[in-house]
Amino acid sequence: MNKSTSWTGIARLRFTPGEQGTRPTLVYTQAPLKVQRSFYASDSGLCQTVLVHTAGGMVGGDRLLTELLLEREAQVLITTPAAQKVYGSLGETSEQVVEITLRGGSCLDYFPLETIVFNQAQFRQDTRVYLAPHSYFSGWEITRFGRTARGERFTEGQWRSSLEIWQVQPDGTKIPLWIDRQHLLDPSALLQSPFGLDAQSVIGNLLLVGQPVTNDQKQNLVETWQAAGYQSPQFACTRTQQGLIARYRGTSSQEARQGFLHLWQTWKKTIVQQPVWMSRLWSV
User: Fold this and answer.
1) Burial of 169 (0-12, 13-18, 19+ CB in 10 A)
2) R_g (Cα) of the chain, nearest Å
3) Of the candidates 209, 114, 126, the residue with the CA atom closest to the CA atom of residue 161
4) 112: closest CA among 234, 255, 270, 282?
5) Residues in Cβ contact with 281 at an 8 Å cutoff, skipping those fewer than 6 apart
6) Distance CA 14, CA 263 (A)
7) Cβ–Cβ < 8 Å for 59, 89
């Protein structure tokens, strides 16, 4: 697709707590991004918002920009109703940028459904999260390479991912908590290599950030996780400076989601002691 006919979608959202809980106080969107009506938890004040990509997928030259700001003490869950599709391109790159700012005491659970990267796609995704002290972020990125249900493999194209988590100090100084960059330039070789994806079509990262986790707490989380049926080598879990990161490598987007959600629920209840509100979209 030519640049003149490509999409530039924008979603800028700000959430502010009030007497009736967290509410969106700024909603600006530009097609093809759209925000559905939010839902509110009467007991916790949590706001649940669904972000929709109305075009159904991205082609070469498309760009999506999402900016989220949570004011102090805001509590928000954001998800999407469907997987993101990235179609094959003759050369132009599709780009998705997500920038998240969390003020002190706020909490964001950011769980978009997976991204499906078609064969010959050229795709770049960049996610940056800025955490104030005493704020919490949980979020995932799940990617499927190729439409495997149709027998398609991601043998041509390019995929880049950059995920950055920064701690913002009261004086404005930014300290890196997690910087993870991945790149598939020769997908045919790396997807098959035992040092790459070992012929697996789905990868995912889950970040649970905002509070240090002890070795004992990590072990308890992993044991609970494994007792629910989620085992290595599909899943692995590692402590970070301010939390945990879990990784998935396998063949099932649903397995990645369900495993991550189980770990997230346990982390919310036992580590940060916050209420859990499951989206109705995850059971569809």
Assistant:
1) exposed
2) 18
3) 126
4) 282
5) 50, 79, 80, 81, 113
6) 27
7) yes
CA 89 to chain centre: 24
Using the predicted structure, report yes or no on whether residue 1 has a pLDDT greater than 50: no
pLDDT tens across 142-154, in order?
A: 999 999 888 888 8
Q: Could you tell me which residue, 110 or 225, shows the higher pLDDT?
A: 110
What does the DSSP assignment read for 153-177?
---SSEEEEEEEEEEEPTTS-EEEE
Tally of CA atoms within 13 A in the half-sphere of 135 that contains its CB: 29
What is the average per-residue pLDDT within 138-142? 96
Cα angle 168, 139, 48 (rounded to 5 degrees) comes to 100
| 3 state DSSP class of 183 | strand
Angle (CA) 131-67-245 rounded to 5° is 45
pLDDT of 233 higher than 90: no
pLDDT at 152: 87
- Tell me how far apart the alpha carbons of residues 163 and 98 are, in angstroms, rounded to a whole number: 10
DSSP secondary structure of 32-81: TEEEPPPEE-TTT--EEEEEEETTSSB-TT-EEEEEEEE-TT-EEEEE-S
| Rounded-to-integer distance, Cα 271 and Cα 21, Å | 23
Please determine, for residue 57, whether its predicted confidence score (pLDDT) is greater than 50: yes
Q: Looking at the DSSP assignment, which residues form a beta bridge with residue 95?
A: 63, 124
Nearest to 237 by CA among 270, 253, 211, 259: 259
For the whole model, what pTM was predicted? 0.93
Residue 42 to residue 96: CA distance in whole angstroms: 33
pLDDT of residue 139: 97
